[in-house]
Amino acid sequence: MSNSPQSKGSDSVSVGRAGQWGLVAIFLLFLVWPWIVESVAPGEGNSQGGRGSMQSRLKQLEDRVKRLSFFENERPADQSFMEEVFREGNAKAYIGQDDWLYYRPELEAVFGKGPFYEEPSSVAREKVAETWEAPLDVIEGFAKQLDERGLELVIVPVPTKPMLARSGLGLGESVDTPTHYREALAELSRREIQVVDLLPVLGTLPESSRFLKHDTHWTPVAMAMAAKHVAETVIDKMGGAKRGDRKIQWHAEKRTHSGDLAGMLDRRDMVKEEVELSVPQGAVTDDSGSPIVLLGDSFVNIYDEPGLGFGDEEDEKIGAGFAAHLSANLAQPLHTIAINGDGATAVRREFASLPDKVLRSKEVVVWVLSARDLLLAELPARRAGIRWVPVEFRKAEVEVGTAEIAQLSVTATVRELSQFADPRETAYKDAVYSLLLSDLTVENGDHGKEEIYAFAWAFRDRVLQESSHLEGGKRYKFTLVPMKKAGEVSNATQVDDLFRTDLDPWFIKDFEPLP
Amino acid sequence: MVFSSHIFLFGFLALALALYYATPVRWKSLTLTLVSYVFYGWWNPWFLPLMLVSTVIDYACGEVISKPGQSKRKRKRKLALWTSIVSNLSILGFFKYAIFFAETTSWFAAQWGWGAVEAPEFLSKIILPVGISFYTFQSMSYSIDLYRGDARPARNFVDFACYVSMFPQLVAGPIVRYGSVADQLRERTHSLDGFVIGMTRFNYGFAKKILLANPAGAIADLCFEAGDASLTGGIAWFGVAAYAFQIYFDFSGYSDMAIGLGRMLGFKFPENFNSPYRSKSLTEFWRRWHISLSSFLRDYLYIPLGGNQKGAGRTYLNLMLVMLIGGLWHGAQWTFVIWGAIHGVALAVERFLRVRRGFTFPQWFALPLTFTVLLITWVFFRAADLDSALTYLSAMFSFQDSSDSAATLAAVVFRPYHLFAMLIGAVVIWAVPATQVWLRQVTGFKAVLGLILLVVSVRMMSLQGFNPFLYFQF
After folding, report:
1. Most Cβ neighbours (<10 Å): which of A151, A416, B215, B409?
2. Global ipTM
């Protein structure tokens, strides 16, 4: 029996044998060509070699093949072709009119199903191991945790670029208030959480002053306006407490930047945008004794952290970011925790890991995060790497205190490690990832625990670091420093699937594999 | 590993072909089986024992069924047949339908006030093995074909394992029945002609997937993931048309690649598509769409149920039942059941009008009408759940004013590139011969064009995000 009358094709080839051999040879040569190119001109080997389970190793192998230099070398030219002929961006960046660029997840946040939509469970759909926590529930839970410790929360969702910069979409200079944005803010208010709605505030600016053209972030003008508005809310929140008495002096500085969205398109040739920064001298943003805590993501770090594009690599801080402006408007110092790309969870986790007595000395937590994190429904949020995970606060009696210890040398086995994304597909360019070390033999220093919760570089400037190849189950000799003392990682995105708030985090400064 | 991936094309395929052609003829089936197990195990090595168990059971049942004998023997043969059917359907039922039936039971229990009937926790952790719906059906067809005397038993276990696991069609068909490849498993021809034909077919299928299905899929995803406030009638129709294009190019492209790969390995697989959107009725559509499934359901379900031999009423009932089961085969969700039910009812109505009333729609009207009905049914097929499907349908037929968010969505959806991709898709669907017809005679031009399309597609693939085949989830 055959399936269908058409099953036996009566097809034929009208090409001579030499021609046929030629066609087959071209086909087979094409299949091996990337490997020939790789052997002649090897690529950067930008893959996480040999980590994790067999499945993750296979995935890494897939990534390695995808990143062979043959494909990598051709990609910019192909991308340029798509841009020039079709004005088409890529999976991350959308090209609008007059070279306005948009981050695709931010567009989805505007016209998507919103945070109230529940994905149906089904074996036939995208299956994911982690359960999805609804953002508003996580925020409410966090507000309650703060309330139990006598702290108040002020949440500041930063409207997305497509809500405020619409002429690049051919939609004029109007402001879009998506229904689910209104509903989400109303729901937060209903749950007695103080929300600052920046949309009407920023909407008063001329459109070109709201967002950068080639970047996901706000302009310095919009940021300064938002900081002023938030400062007024915080002052109200603190029972009308007076502003501090710090003397602030302002000076202007011009800087240029090619834009993170241009970077996602591999378009380094795009005209750089110039901005004028107002740098408030006298603002303090890293005072851990301040009663005001600022949690945030790259909307806080932009114009402050040089790695986000407006500074030179050798600059320590630019000092013109949201935190500096907020501090200046409040005329008092702030305790700032801002992590690029993970304003939803990692900042809360880091905040929750502070010693209990430090936490209880705080009064207000201002939490600035992209509205995108709040508005995306589950599937697009997962695709954009957004996680909403409740965090546990450190118990009062658990005070590990690594601050006094300068350095620790141990031999240990890597028991668990977080999985980080391909550096060429992330919105951030620097990342550290967490590991859990066990079977410890302390060689130098003092450590009373059976486990160590540590971070190591995954990638810097989108290039994988040696420590990204640490393997689960293997034994190494590590040199560790307390995370708080590892200044160079403070602005890197923390990829952390382990969430060990009961342990103080360390940073792996150096390591060597043991036989 | 999917066909439209770098690892398949530039890793697995090159190695598999090299190994296969370096192996002496008598070991080729074993080599093909081993590389197919590697191919399948790539997704998740834990899926391999499951496929092996299914293979062993059906081979053993086949051994019993194929031994001729008298009445006692007949009972054993029947028992072996039912063992094969029940074991395959049990595997499929457990992995694909257990959670669906448990959740449905919970829902009905809650609706009818029977109290809480919670689905066991472990059911929610079941991962659907890739391609299980395809290989269980294939494996089962072996026992049935042997029982009916439609095929000779496999020469040995390796031949049978090769049949079940053959990587070109393992995870998304075409559903190759044992009878149609039994002879090829014993003896097949490996020729340069066959390789060129297969290679060219593969290249065209690859291009269909990357150049036509993926851009259409990007449009469909935007529209089906849009919120209620953003969907207008125009966007909704455009989105479902994009989905119709996506699923056709995706699945028929996959089938082209499978058939092409089979041909490169010396096999001739059945055709699976024949320009389905040129159908002038749903009855015709099912003769042109996923032909290997519709003929499987026809031969193993519709005809055993009595087909059209037991009166008009029973014929309509059989049609509806078969389509309902066909819908459920696609996925354990009510949306698929409704999709199947609509097709079943439509087939019954068409048959009633044609046979009992002698009525058919005029030719000029029949094609657009059929395509429009198909678009409406695709909404159920694509939507994440019933609520989403109904919301989407209501958007298709609403004339609400466009909101700001809708304007944003429209700006992103109606881009020149999207319009161009849809236009090309429409031309390929309605104005260009079906791939197998176009490639009936492979000329130098067609073969070179195929190679060019392959190179262009690979370069495009490097720009696109990961995009697996739609039918893998079934």
Report:
1. B409
2. 0.88
With residues binned 3-state (H G I as helix, E B as strand, rest as coil), the percentages for chain A, rounded to 5, are 35, 20, 45
Contacts of B200 in chain A (CB under 8 A): 23
How far the first Cα of chain A sits from its last, in Å, is 61
Residue identified by tokens 């790969």 is: B261
Q: What is the dihedral of CA B358, B364, B369, B375, to 10 degrees?
A: 140
DSSP string covering A133-149, please?
Answer: PPHHHHHHHHHHHHHHT
Residue with tokens 């229904």: A179
| pLDDT tens track for B26-36 | 899 999 999 99
Alpha-carbon distance values, A76 to A139, A265, B454 (Å): 41, 8, 19
C-alpha distance from A135 to closest chain B C-alpha (Å): 17
- Residue A48, SS3 per DSSP: coil
Q: How many Å lie between the alpha carbon of A10 and the closest alpha carbon of chain B?
A: 7
Respond yes or no on whether the N-terminal peptide bond of residue B362 is cis (omega within 30° of 0): no
- Tell me what pLDDT residue A3 has: 43
Residue with token string 């033999």: A441
Note the pLDDT of residue B374.
96
Highest mean pLDDT among A54-68, A248-262, A461-475, B287-301: B287-301
CATH class label, A408-513: mainly beta
Does A122 lie at the interface with B, CB-CB under 8 angstroms?
A: yes
Would you call A88 and B473 a contact, using CB atoms and an 8 Å cutoff?
no
| Domain ranges across chain A | 22-72, 135-383, 408-513
The gap between the terminal CA atoms of chain B, to the nearest Å, is 16
| Cα gap A386→A493, rounded to integer Å | 12
Q: Which of B176, B228, B408 sits opposite A169 (nearest CB)?
A: B408
User: Hey, how many other C-beta atoms are within 10 angstroms of the C-beta on B388?
Assistant: 21
Per-residue confidence at A496, pLDDT binned at 50, 70, 90? confident
R_g of chain B computed on alpha carbons: 23
Q: What residues form DSSP beta bridges with A158?
A: A370
Domain ranges for chain B: 6-188, 194-280+361-473
Give catalytic residue positions of B.
330
pLDDT band with cut points at 50, 70 and 90 for residue A376: very high
Q: List all residues of chain B from 405 to 444 with a beta carbon under 8 Å from chain A.
A: 405-409, 411-412, 415-417, 420, 436, 439-444
pLDDT digits (tens, 9 = 90+) for B189-228: 899 999 999 999 999 999 999 999 999 999 999 999 999 8
**Residue listed under structure tokens 């301040």:** A290
Tell me the C-alpha distance between B248 and B251, whole Å: 5
* Relative orientation angle of helices B334-351 and B386-396, to the nearest 10 degrees: 50
CB contact under 8 A, B412 and A107: yes
Residues 223-282 of B with CB under 8 A from A: 225-230, 268-271, 274
CB < 8 Å to B472, chain A: none
User: What pLDDT score does A200 carry?
Assistant: 93
Angstrom distance (rounded) from CA B330 to CA A107 = 32
